[in-house]
Structure prediction request, 1015 residues.
Amino acid sequence: MSADPKMDTSLSKAMSGKGKSTEWARIGTVVGNTSTGSYTFILRSFQAKLGDIVATLVEVPVATNGGRKIATVWGRIVSIDRFNPFFPAEAAQELADQNIRFLDTVLSGSRDHLEAEVLILGTTFGDDPGSAQLSPLTYPVRPSAEVLYPGADDVRRLLAGDGDDRTQKLRIGTLIGRGDVEVSLSARHVVSRHLAILAMTGGGKTVAARRIIRELIELGYPLVIFDPHGDYLGFFEKRHLFPKSNIRVLYPMIRVRQDNIGIIADLINKMGKRLTDAQQQFYYYLLSNTDVTEGEPAAAYIQRLIDHAEAVAAKKRRKDKDLPDELGDLRTGTMNAAKRSLEFVHDNLRQMERNNERLRGQPRFRDYRFEEMPDPSDAPDEIVHPGTVSIFYLAGYDHLNQSAIVSIVLEALFAHRSTLSGIIPPFQAVVEEAHNFIPSRQEGTDETPSLVTIRKVITEGRKFGTGLVLISQRPSRLDETTLAQCNSFLVLRLVNPKDKSFVRSVMENLSETDANVLQTFGSGEGIVSGQAVRFPLLVKVDFDRDLVSDAIGDEDFIAEAQKWKPNPRRKANADTVRRHMGDGRGNNAPGRSTSDHGDSNAASGSAAKGSRRRGRRKTIRPAGF
Amino acid sequence: MRRLARLASTMRELLEQNDLVHSVSYRPREFWPGLKGRTIAFVDGGVANIELPSAAPIGIRVGSYLVRPGDETDQRERFNIELSLVDDLYSENGVLYDSDFLDIAKLRDAARMASETSVAYRLAQSVECPDMIILHGPLVNPVAPYGLEDFPPFGSAACRAFLADGSWTGSDQDRQFVSLYLELLKRLRDTGVAVVGAVERSIGKDPVVIRRLLNHLQDQRVMRREDVKSILDEIIVYGLNDASLLDVVLQEGEYVSPIPVMRQGPENKWPEEWKQWIRDYPNALTTYLKPSELVMPFRIEAFENIKDFVNVLDLILHTSRLLPSYGFPVGLDIVDRFAKIPAWMSRSVKGQHQVVLLQKALANGDPRVLAFAKRVLAARGRDWLFRPSV
Prediction:
């Protein structure tokens, strides 16, 4: 019996009113201790499930003396415990031991108790959950209160919140298990406050990112996508779906001009070894004495710098008299060190250009139109433009080079935004495989030039209309400071305990029960929280089947391996060399090429190990000897 | 220990020689599928723990668990509260219990026994009459302790509820526990349904069943009276009861020959005015079954007219083996949990009872009744805890 009959009456009136107008089903009763943060209730069988939004009514005191107001308390079911007090564990053991069918016995299996834990999301006053401000609950839910299952429209309005303007929402999917309730992100918050999408491989992060990108494209918002594996090339392939947008696929090519000659120093800093003061003096000498051909590739220009350096160093060695005075004090070693840095950058640049070119040349990309990336300093508007999606295809570059490219491009674009040059509009950058671009300290940040850039953008980008979407499959390898700056998170399936605990440490409002759910998500299922939504929600991300690329997908490596044939010319050449020249160790037996007999290498390796164990070296003789 | 072992060996040999020990085999994979299509009912009562001085409020509910092994439909199992009584059972007018009999525990026990037997009777009469009914506790209880001179009769409404007969009218004597319980047992026995009681704990010190078995051998003149006496004396000296001795005598799956036991105790202790009724009480066909080596045997009682008692014991063995380390029919464990009245419910019953008591006392208008009601509600009992301190 209640201590306050008046309260019961008013609540029950409100409850019945709610029931009539919106037909909210009664699904359970609050039990146990309640608080302003959570409550538990006994759930009727099959009436609700994990992640569902539920409601209950509570009378809360208002400022005026003794006044009360009925609030609708919104909550999310964060766990459901199911237990059958009538089914003893002993019996289960006996059933298993004796291999008896449960149904054949007198055991009971029908009296399940379902106890659901609800995380309170907030309260609203009045009938329309969408129009009202969601405010914290200030008075605990009443034990014995009825728990209601709100109608889809009401939940939709609740999730949409203020000003349900469709153009400002990015639909990402529906509530898990409730396909009639759409879940959207606030576009405004995504583009200005940064978003992280985290999931293990196969968790659906690319699907989720594609969904959000698609919605941003529909809004005509400028996008820059750094795509290390070509996951987003499908947007180009399916560009007919976005007739109002200009979708471009860019490959990195750094060119130099007189006014951006500093980029070489950037490349040395970001890719190579930092120059000492003396080396820098030599480097500046080279720069000022090697003419730039406008728009020439950076690699070609660096090669000319190297040639120049070699010539000067030779003069120094020869002690030529026409060696410029300013280099008189420099040692040859200093010159050679600077030259080696340049060679390192040059080799890297050439290598990555060749790799990328080879990848672009694959038959599957025959219908693609790859464009060389515009100069982000000089022509940022060719990259960032309303309705333009610029996808940087970074495949073939190693992490260091990818990181350098991202750093150069992002820094240049952000510089335009932060100096308010007015050349480019606000834009959103999407960084896939973010753990390679913003690694944690343990991962070795020295070789990751993009870390500093992204840190800067994520800290200051909000003021200058530069948003980031960071996507990663290994959250625990991400830089914590950077990730913590993301105001919204979409976390899909995560199993690795390190990743889960890291995500929990970064996401302030992720409860322990939510963290435990992460590993149970199916592909495309996850939890979204932060400023982009009114409160954390379990979401099933829509799968945009029409955006799946025909060229990029799950390659069938087994079929490829079965069809693969070695290049006969390569083998013939190798045989010729061995037949005539031997292998330098007196072994000139025909048909014994290393490539033919990979197993013999392995055998020799293991034999060598074995011989080391026995303390003597064993010679492996080819067959016939 | 040596003498106990000797005693056990003697008993074992005596039982074996006289064909008084039998066994049912545990063969679950064969047994359970063979039970398909039959309905088994398990019955147990729960009593609310209500302390209200000077009144006899009873909160009793008797639950049943009916199960059809092998049935794959939603109808396989059915839980039901067959009888739910929240009342002053012993008040004739349903207003206020005003008797001098203050042994509330006895009143409650009597009400529980009547209720459980009543539910078994209702089930046996129902359309979905089960093939077997298994009660939690003895089938036939001793009634002499409840035949005291000032023991109050049940109210008429309670009697009608117990007998599932809205038109029943009975005298004060008919409403007394001793006569009403007898009536219920007779009616239940006459339904012909196999009804047994399984007793979870043996608390008495008297080895009733062993004595009856030995007496039976003596009656058949296959055992000397002196020998019977010496064995019984030794059992009593060592304080052994049926369960503790049979625990070492019986092996897994064994039971002693069911033997009729008159459970009403020595006649000289029967209240004189109830002797005629007590004499009519049915005997309990009693045996002890030891489900497995790990557990003690427990007592099983049936009416003497039971058919296929061996089949019932087979079922009891198999249901007990589903709780291997507890060794008691799992169905009774289930229905016990179902019918048990939790503390929070007892508190509510007490609160509700207090309100009704006061309302009725006010409506009665008699200042004496009202004063009494107030006293009842305010009373906390006299307890050493409340003695004035110095």
Q: What stands out?
A: The radius of gyration of chain B is 23 Å. The first helix of chain B runs from residue 2 to 17. Chain B has two domains: 2-341, 346-381. The first strand of chain B starts at residue 21 and ends at 23.
